[in-house]
Amino acid sequence: MAEINAKDVMSLRNKTGLAMMACKKALIEAGGDVEKAEDLLRKELKGKMESKMDRAAGEGRIEVAVAGDGSAASIVELRAETDFTAKNDKFIGITKKLAEMALAAPAGSSEPTPEMVALIDDIRISTGENISIGRVEKLDASGNKTVYGKYVHHDGKTGVLIEAEGDVAEDTLRQIAMHVTAAFPRPLGLTANDIPSDLVEKERKFRIEQAVESGKPREIAEKMVEGGMRKFFAEVALTEQAFVMDPSKSVKEVVGAGGSLKNFRRWEVGEAN
After folding, report:
1. Which of 19-28, 70-79, 94-103, 182-191 has the lowest average pLDDT?
2. Following CA atoms 48, 53, 55, 61 in sequence, which dihedral angle do they give, to the nearest 10 degrees?
3. Predicted model pTM
């Protein structure tokens, strides 16, 4: 039997996060070969982890990355079972790495690459939790002067990516991303035209029914509601919202005449895709 030294056991333990005895056992089985022992652990424990995939992964982290040349940006969600794991430095580092890797993916939503899956396997093995990628999306620069802004809340559970064109400072976009995180009501689109039609109709119907119940004839109620809908759009269309850091200005005014917002993503951990 190959001699197993404590240094190799500790090295394998640091690499996998597993108990010393499990690492020593794998090294004995691998004849002292550290790489082979790591592969054995990976195969054995990945199989065990697959049986736990039905466990709820309600915690996690959002991360946003912007390419160094400003040509693209990405946003990813990595899910975990516990808040303890989601706050672990290794988990945070892997989430950041996934966002950087997503910059090489095609534009739009995409499935995890084999390289991403390998990263996930590592942390699934070391934590014993159901770790999974919730979402991955990449935005490609859509204009000659595209600028990106990003913000990840201090708890890592909310992340915002903003895409703009024209003369807009990155710091301004970061502040707008912070606004998107904090704004209530939550912005549902860039402008009134971007609000999902089903939500618009639901709101309009609700307002009409309220007016009718108060005694107004339906024809009058329908006319009255249009004014209320303008207020609704001002509350949920990002560019029309009062800027959280200076409510005397709208977000559109903060952007300024030299630029315009083109896209945004606001993701929270665990929300429906």
Report:
1. 19-28
2. 110
3. 0.77
